[in-house]
Design goal:
205 residues; Aspartate Aminotransferase, domain 1; four-stranded antiparallel sheet; 4 strands
């Protein structure tokens, strides 16, 4: 039987008012469709594992996001959802029905049951194209700081969406202005050096 991780409880409780019902609904649908799901906090956001990574959700300042680890295999209609996202979720009306969402979850479970690997990571040129087609919500302070630093901005444009998202979430999570300013300055410094947010933990650095 699946269990609820207290850290995910806290994440939902600390989310904005509009986000709490969305996150709660997504969580409930995942648990209902996958009784053996395991909740984990990874990269500061709730992830749902079933024989490996399956899907995740996140809350931002004005929207939520939900995606599958093997999104392109779970949803094959060519939409943004097929790339692991359901777009900017601002209310429950932005989500597929519970029946459709449950079907996606069961398909993701089946992929993990049979050990199908996640889609191959595209080479740098394809990643750059994906970055242009799938914008990442950049906090205003970080965007302005990047515009002032040509080297950091150039590096930023070459980053994979996942690396961009890690910096954006780190800055957005800061509650105090002073903390956010410090994180923006540190982010620009590391980005200019071509370092991902968690570069300290990269093997062989």
């Amino acid at each position: 039987m699946s269990t609820r991780n207290p850290k995910v409880d806290a994440y939902i409780a600390n989310a904005a008012d509009f986000a709490r019902p969305i996150l709660t609904h997504l969580r409930d649908v995942v648990h209902a469709a996958c009784p053996d799901v395991v909740e984990e906090m990874k990269w500061s956001t709730p992830h749902f594992d079933y024989k490996g990574m399956m899907c995740s959700m996140a809350a931002f300042k004005t929207h939520c996001a939900f995606g599958f680890w093997k999104g392109a295999l779970v949803i094959s209609d060519g939409s943004d959802a097929a790339r692991g996202q359901f777009g900017r979720i601002t209310s429950l009306a932005d989500l597929p029905s519970k029946q459709v969402l449950s079907a996606y979850i069961k398909k993701a479970m089946a992929l993990n049951d049979t050990g199908v690997p996640a889609p191959h990571v595209a080479p740098q040129r394809a990643r750059a194209k994906a970055t242009r087609n799938r914008p990442v919500e950049v906090p205003e302070e970080l965007a302005a700081a990047l515009q002032r630093n040509k080297q950091a901005l150039a590096r930023w444009k070459d980053f994979a969406p996942s690396h961009q998202r890690e910096y954006c979430e780190w800055v957005a999570e800061a509650k105090r202005e002073a903390t956010r300013a410090t994180r923006v300055a540190q982010s620009v410094e590391w980005i200019a050096e071509g370092k991902p947010r968690n570069w300290k933990y990269v093997k062989g650095r």
